[in-house]
Amino acid sequence: MHSLVKDSILNYSLSDTRWVWDVEAIKSTSIDKTVLDLLTRKLSQLPDNIVDALKVLSCLGPKVDDTLMKYLYTSPESRNEFIACLDLAVGENILEKSGDSAYSFVHDMLKQSAYAVMSEEEKGEKHFWIGMQLIANASTDTDEFNAITFSVVDQINAANTYGVTEEALHMKFAELNLKAGKISIDVSDFQSALSYMKAGVSLLNGWQDGEYYDMSLQLYESAALVSYLNTDIGLMQQYLEILFENAKCFEDRLHGYLVMIQSMLSSEKQGEAMRHIISILEELGESFSIDVNPKDAYAEVVSTKSLLCGLSVEDVINGKRMADKRMRWTLKFLTLLCHIFYPASKSAQLCMAACRVVKLSIEHGFCSDSAEGLQLYSFGVWNFQNDVEECLKWVCAGKRLVESLGAKHMIPKVTMNVHIASYWNEPLQSRIESLKESHHELLMVGDLENLTVNAVHFGRRSLLCGRNLLTAEKECAALLHGMYQIRKMNALLPMISNHLSILKLIGSHYDSEQQLNEPLFHLLGNSEINSQDGLLKHALSKRLGGLAQQCYFDRLLLAFWSKNYGEAAHYAE
């Protein structure tokens, strides 16, 4: 209001004895800009030492306490002087104080104003000074430094954006960005992780050999991974290309190969992914043939079961751990093969790969990938022997093994498999809410492959377990849109079949005020797939066995519920 009066937009008329104003001028006034200008003028009237303190504070986070202040101002005199300035700003209603030593601006606009009074060069210098103070005064290998890692890296990176840096320290800064990126991955903040990895790669200024080779390798591996997790496939490919070109040996390319294959599986390039995996396995000393008949798979299940009969669950959980790195990579790529065979309903190949994982684990020791091998072997036991007890025993053992190893990133995956296996001994509806929780947990750890499996099973159970169809329809449509957003196209096809079945079951017998989603074929980006028949035709032409099975199953279900038992029997065959 004072600002409007000062600018003669709002005036008191002595002749009319009332306030008068220019409506058009007020409408054209940016309130945010007016407030910002006003606050900037207020700051300019404060003593220089208080303004300098506020500038430092504006470069930091929303709240600053003595954890950072003790590193910024190491002498008691300088720290007390800084705190005295902040206390004066509290008296001016610019800052607020919580507890004994935590300060924050009373409003974001005040923080913005304190930041805006600095030139671009001064902002860069201020950020750089803060970052270097934190690096200089905190021991880099301590828990205390770990707690302020993000503050350090954010300040150095902010300074760099303003052109203020120290080239001689770029390798140190790149290392800090790598550290911050890895911490972000651990807490599933993949967007921040990508930002840190990109900054780290930029600071490298190209691939570095010699003493910085390992750091270059880790930065490009991690940058490719988080690019994939953020669905930026083009950027992922750029990082992988540089990694593959500069890696010194086959082993140094394995992390890159893993990301590349995961990306292929997300893009429905299962055939290409399988060829790469088999080639990598051969390089690792493990041959695998996809030409498997059910008889061979049955024999493999029987021989694996015989080996496991000599072990208790406790023997596995507390037994020898796998130390051979190449063997661990072998298990990882064998389980990736299982991810191809499972949705394609290639039970024989799935059993051969899973049993191989179990046998190698028994011989060389158990690791986190052994757990998934045990669980997938369990599905083979059910498929070929209908042995529910043995199946559930090793599915649950896989989850316990992961927990005992502390492999947190795998817990959502193995927990999901336990929920899926419950199909054989629990009512269908018993795990619906658990599968919903698994969806969130898999998303949090960036496990996009198993997110697909979970979404398909959730959709199928929603259809079968007697839930309210309107609720099932909304949840299925929401999952479809979620899979589309993260570009999991291989999940969309079976889920669309599910969604169509739900819509057909609802038919015209629903509250007309209840809004339903139209069939979501447009998400596929394929104009030829515009009906349930088109979906089945696509599955058969592309030899997508899992999808074709899903389509036939959904048709069987609709025919049975419509009491067309002859048609249902036809689809069952």
The first-to-last residue Cα distance is 79 Å
> Helical segment tally?
30
Strand content: under 5%
Q: Please outline the major beta sheet.
A: 2 strands, antiparallel
Counting DSSP E segments of at least 2 residues, the number of strands comes to: 4
How much is the average pLDDT?
85
Question: What would you call the shape?
Answer: globular
Q: What is this structure, in a nutshell?
A:
By secondary structure, the chain is mainly alpha-helical. Helices cover 71% and strands 3% of the residues.
Q: What's the arrangement of secondary structure elements?
A:
Blueprint: H1 2-6, E1 10-13, E2 18-21, H2 23-28, H3 31-44, H4 48-59, H5 66-72, H6 76-91, E3 95-98, E4 102-105, H7 108-116, H8 120-137, H9 143-147, H10 149-161, H11 170-186, H12 190-204, H13 213-229, H14 233-246, H15 250-266, H16 270-283, H17 294-309, H18 313-318, H19 325-341, H20 347-364, H21 368-385, H22 388-405, H23 411-421, H24 432-445, H25 448-464, H26 469-485, H27 489-506, H28 532-541, H29 545-561, H30 565-572
Antiparallel strand pairs: 1-2, 3-4
Helix pairs in contact: 3-7, 4-6, 4-7, 8-10, 10-11, 11-12, 11-13, 12-13, 13-14, 13-15, 14-15, 15-16, 15-19, 16-19, 17-20, 17-21, 19-20, 19-21, 20-21, 21-22, 21-23, 22-23, 23-24, 24-25, 25-26, 25-27, 26-27, 27-29, 28-29, 29-30
